[in-house]
Design brief:
CATH architecture: Beta Barrel
Number of domains: 1
CATH topology: Hypothetical Protein Pfu-838710-001
Largest sheet: 8 strands, antiparallel, barrel
Radius of gyration: 17 Å
Order of helices and strands: EHEHEEEHHEEEHH
Shape: globular
Low-confidence stretches: none
Structural class: alpha+beta
Number of helices: 6
Oligomer: single chain
CATH superfamily: Hypothetical Protein Pfu-838710-001
CATH class: Mainly Beta
Strand content: 35-45%
Length: about 190
């Protein structure tokens, strides 16, 4: 499995703010790609309780199994590429013959593959653009009968990234909003 530390700064924006930003950054309809996140946990939310998130992300014909865990600098992400067959088996609650991720979950958290269930999906249309020291991401997400608009800034160094991101928000008169990540928003919506 591939591992990396993810440092993301996030801010929910209104639809109007989103349109203003995408216009300012020359984001067109052709700039967007679609991705679907399928979220997993046990029926007792074992991973959520440990501050972890597990998903399969489908982008076009690729499926990536990702575990996000707390890390002092952000989140530690572990990734495994899946075949379409294995991804769909997991999404449908069936077992797969082998998976490094499933083996890791069992060894690290004592979670057997049969304990995992797909809790639902979140569909995002996303545009990305290089900005200052990082990658600026424009996300429109739809899930569980709701939608939201989010601006993310993916950086390799938090302090510089925060300075640049907060300045961008200030430039466009967008208030800093405490923003949970997508899976937290998904869970909050699911549990209400």
């Amino acid at each position: 499995m591939k591992q990396e530390i993810e440092i993301e700064l996030k801010n929910l924006v209104t639809e109007e703010e989103f349109k203003e930003l995408t216009s300012a950054f020359s984001i067109t309809d052709d700039s967007y790609t679609k991705q679907t996140n399928y979220y997993f946990d046990t029926d007792t939310f074992t991973l959520k309780e440990k501050g972890c998130a597990l998903r399969i992300r489908q982008k076009k014909d690729t499926y990536t199994f990702t575990l996000k865990r707390p890390h002092k600098d952000g989140l530690m992400e572990s990734h495994e590429n899946l075949s379409e067959e294995n991804a769909l088996r997991l999404i449908n609650g069936d077992s797969v013959t082998s998976s490094d991720m499933l083996q890791f979950l069992e060894e690290t958290f004592g979670i057997e593959s049969g304990q995992l269930c797909c809790l639902g999906s979140l569909v995002t249309t996303r545009a990305e653009q290089t900005y200052k020291s990082g990658l600026l991401v424009f996300d429109h997400s739809v899930y569980l009968g709701t939608e939201d608009f989010e601006l993310e800034f993916e950086v390799s160094e938090r302090k510089q990234g925060e300075k640049e991101f907060w300045h961008l928000l200030e430039t466009y008169d967008i208030p800093q909003r405490k923003t949970a990540n997508k899976i937290e928003r998904f869970f909050n919506r699911r549990l209400t």
